[in-house]
């Protein structure tokens, strides 16, 4: 796809949106990629990092390698994600502590609208897509109620966390950040990002590279050959994940410093939260229209 400079700048902005979402434990960067219309290209570009492209790289054919992996697309998108993660990590983690209801309300509206947005791309509803939708919803819901664990800080485990979390990050509705919460490593990784702990960041990133290059092949195959069923599962993931982003919660337990919460009925900041839900909901439509215009 031929792109001009303004298209690449827009791509970086989309990356920043993905990065901001990935920092929040409950919202997926994959959701943002779907909303802004770059999901398929993202999966195919990651999938193209394979033995063939690596051979081009190691034989000095760097230009051919860059073209083979859709390098310009990946570079500007990853630059946007990196800018967002490193610049917003402190702000978002602070907001989650200082104003949790308002933050979750905004993302609740965003994910709710995204569920509709992904679901409307399903061309045919039948027993297969309905089953996929129900299974996706059930799996995501189970993940949101699973109890976080206290886990090791061993480098190998950090590597494994990177591989698992990145797979969730590119799935709409399944938050890589929340998977890190379940693995007991969300605040550990966020602290490494905020303090720029190079060792931890590199180990986590290496795991993420292995995970995403492997999992992208499965996703690419599924989207090409079983698109309706795959989209139905992803839509179910997103609907099931709404349990996690419900704004009003109460603390049930805080064993070993890992908060365990349950949802409650709205009891405070109701007007502000509803307004932010509406903002998040309609932001999806704005991004969809913007993506449609830039894609023409």
Radius of gyration: 19 Å
Secondary-structure element string? HHHHHHHHHHHHHEEH
Percentage of residues in strands: under 5%
Spatial strand order of the main sheet? 1-2
- Major sheet description: 2 strands, antiparallel
Name the shape in a single word: globular
Distance between the termini: 11 Å
Which oligomeric form is depicted? single chain
Which ranges are low-confidence, i.e. pLDDT below 50, for 5 or more consecutive residues?
none
Give the helix proportion (percent range): over 70%
Find the structural class using helix and strand composition.
Answer: mainly alpha
Count of discrete alpha- or pi-helical segments spanning 4 or more residues: 14
Mean pLDDT across all amino acids = 83
Number of strands: 2
Question: Can you summarize this structure?
Answer:
This protein has helices at 5-23, 29-35, 39-47, 51-58, 62-68, 71-98, 100-119, 127-145, 155-169, 176-182, 186-194, 198-225, 227-245, 270-295; strands spanning 249-253, 260-263. It is mainly alpha-helical and 296 residues long.
Please characterize this protein's 3D structure:
It is built from 14 helices and two strands; from the N terminus they run H-H-H-H-H-H-H-H-H-H-H-H-H-E-E-H. With 296 residues, it is mostly helical. A two-stranded antiparallel sheet has the order 1-2. Strand 1 and strand 2 form a beta hairpin. The model has no long low-confidence stretch (mean pLDDT 83).
